[in-house]
Write a structure and sequence with these properties.
Elements lengths: L1 H20 L2 H27 L10 H7 L7 E6 L5 E9 L4 H17 L2 H6 L3 E8 L20
Parallel strand pairs: 2-3
Antiparallel strand pairs: 1-2
Helix pairs in contact: 2-4
Length: 154
């Protein structure tokens, strides 16, 4: 119980510091992005368990499951219109990923959407994929079956 109280007060202190330095909005935006990426990774993990081996492009399910984490998912930003209303998510693909892995993720996403109820499908936010890639670099332990040799091509 003591540790829980300690974490709570540390969180309150950090929140006050962010507000004082004017970084609270940046923190909220960053937290929302990370949360969306974590949720998307969890959904992809779930659908990965249900697809047939043939759909996995010849890659072992266990290998793919290890990399269906937020670090390996595209960057997303919210896009708003002139009135401040949400329009869609802007997606920037990761330049260091092989096209085969991107295609596999797209297939899993399509399978996931296919399995959604009609109501949930209507509630999904639209995504617009930009041609400009994300500036995020590959994780240090990135497997070779995902990472391109030449990150400037494709």
């Amino acid at each position: 119980m003591k540790l829980e109280h300690q974490k709570h007060y540390i969180s309150l202190r950090d929140q006050a510091r962010r507000k004082e330095s004017g970084k609270d909005k940046d923190h909220a935006t960053r937290s929302r992005r990370q949360s969306r990426r974590r949720e998307r990774a969890a959904r992809l993990q779930q659908i990965l368990r249900s697809v047939k081996e043939e759909a996995l492009e010849g890659v072992a399910r266990e290998k793919i499951a290890k990399v269906m984490t937020p670090e390996y998912l595209s960057s997303e930003e919210s896009d708003y219109d002139d009135n401040g209303e949400f329009r869609h998510f802007i997606v920037r693909r990761l330049a260091w990923q092989k096209q085969t892995f991107k295609t596999l993720k797209d297939k899993l996403e399509a399978k996931l959407k296919e399995n959604l109820s009609p109501q949930h499908r209507r509630q999904l936010r639209s995504r617009r994929i930009l041609t400009i890639p994300s500036k995020r670099t590959a994780p240090e332990d990135c497997p070779k079956f995902i990472r391109r040799e030449d990150e400037n091509s494709d």
